[in-house]
Amino acid sequence: MPKHVFPVDFVWGAATAAYQIEGAVREDGRGESIWDRFSHTPGKIQGGDTGDVACDHYHRYREDVALMREMGLKGYRFSIAWPRIVPAGKGALNPKGLDFYNALVDRLLANGITPYATLYHWELPQLLQDRGGWDNRDTAAYFAEYAAVVFESLGDRVRHWITLNEPSVVAYNGHAIGEHAPGFTDYALAVRVSHHLNLAHARAVAAYRQLNQGGVIGTTLNLTSVYPAGNAPEDGAAARIADGMYNRWFLDPVLKGAYPRDILELFGQKLQAPVIQAGDLERIAAAPIDFLGLNYYSRLLVRSAPSSPFGYEAVRGAGPCTAMGWEIYPDGLYDLLVRLDRDYGHPRLLVTENGAAFDDPLQAGRVADPERIAYLREHFLAARRAIESGVRLEGYFVWSLLDNFEWAHGYSRRFGLIYVDYPTQERIWKDSARWYQGVIRQNGV
Ligand SMILES: OC[C@@H]1[C@@H](O)[C@H](O)[C@@H](O)c2[nH]c(CCc3ccccc3)c[n+]21
């Protein structure tokens, strides 16, 4: 018997994203996305990898749903590729794109797995990027139009919706440091993009409410627990700024309907204020969410750095790291969950991503991944402690079901519970997949 049992209806899940697993990028009318363009741009992706084939999930989804069923997943979080549904980003629809996601959803439901659909996991149609992308506030309206099409097609069976995956990463990695598509390095642009993403989220929530389909809708934010590296007062001040830029800039609009004043002023000084127009904040405030999805991987340790653009710099933690170089710090998940509960009005929460990459050598047809088992176990226990403290955590989606295309790292990083032998596309259960199957079966660790 497990020592730490979870609530009886706790949603044990796993997560993926379209561009990272589907492949078939030119099939059945799919339009080009900014990640097709970016991954085919020499020098952007480790090893020159692209998502052209990935895990070939577009063709293998029946087999993959069978794997989810065998694992005993209660929920499966996946993303819908905008360029499959509206190839040009706006205007004409692609029926075959809708057919694929209808078939996937029907198969999930037939196997007793609840679908959790993310509308935007970074695949902006390239033709919209050609018109300014997220720097063009019209993109927010095009996103809501795409969302409405998807709600109408799937909303009778998909009852759990996530508008955006990690707007902070879209803004920062894609527009401030250029590590992600579309590859810009302009901080003022990144701040404008963050505002237009918040607008897009609000418009999609409003579109969902209008349809009265009776499900729930939220968003997924990449959040962390920020700690000062030292006891000096300036380190505490640095931590507050980092927490503001990383967390509160995205949390406050969706959960409080307003931007945090300190960061608004900071951006106002350092950058042109975000292009906030009359009615924007009212629109954002008028679109409350039903639940918040959070992706947690590691903590953030900062110290004062007067010469840095925003007065702080990250410090490497002392703990062991994953293959991504991210410190393993389960207490940061507990602290984050308790903080969200305390500061944001006891919201319904889902861990929409948590997981780790390790080397995962395939040896004699087996992948022993004790580090991933330890990582997940420690984070599950942190989540359990938070639930005991009264946090309304309703589910947990491990990143990821399958090894897949890890953005700028290509296929060099393996986050999957299930190993993918890309040359043969064979799926091989890692030890952690068997272990997770047991956790789900006994509903606890
Ligand atoms: O890096 C692992 C996963 C990605 O594969 C997911 O698509 C993405 O939602 C996701 N977010 C994070 C944390 C933020 C981050 C993303 C990408 C690169 C660095 C940090 C980690 N992950």
Automatic annotation (TrEMBL):
It holds the Pfam family Glyco_hydro_1. InterPro entries: GH (IPR017853), GH_1_N_CS (IPR033132), Glyco_hydro_1 (IPR001360), Glyco_hydro_1_AS (IPR018120), Glyco_hydro_1_beta-glucosidase (IPR017736). PROSITE patterns: GLYCOSYL_HYDROL_F1_1, GLYCOSYL_HYDROL_F1_2. One of its GO terms (biological process) is cellulose catabolic process. Its EC number is 3.2.1.21. Keywords: Carbohydrate metabolism, Cellulose degradation, Glycosidase, Hydrolase, Polysaccharide degradation. It is an enzyme of class 3 (hydrolase). It catalyses: Hydrolysis of terminal, non-reducing beta-D-glucosyl residues with release of beta-D-glucose. GO terms for cellular component: cytosol. GO terms for molecular function: beta-glucosidase activity. Signal peptide: none annotated. Substrate binds at residues 20, 121, 165, 297, 399, 406-407. PANTHER family: GLYCOSYL HYDROLASE (PTHR10353), LP05116P (PTHR10353:SF36). Belongs to the glycosyl hydrolase 1 family. This is Beta-glucosidase. It comes from Hydrogenispora ethanolica.
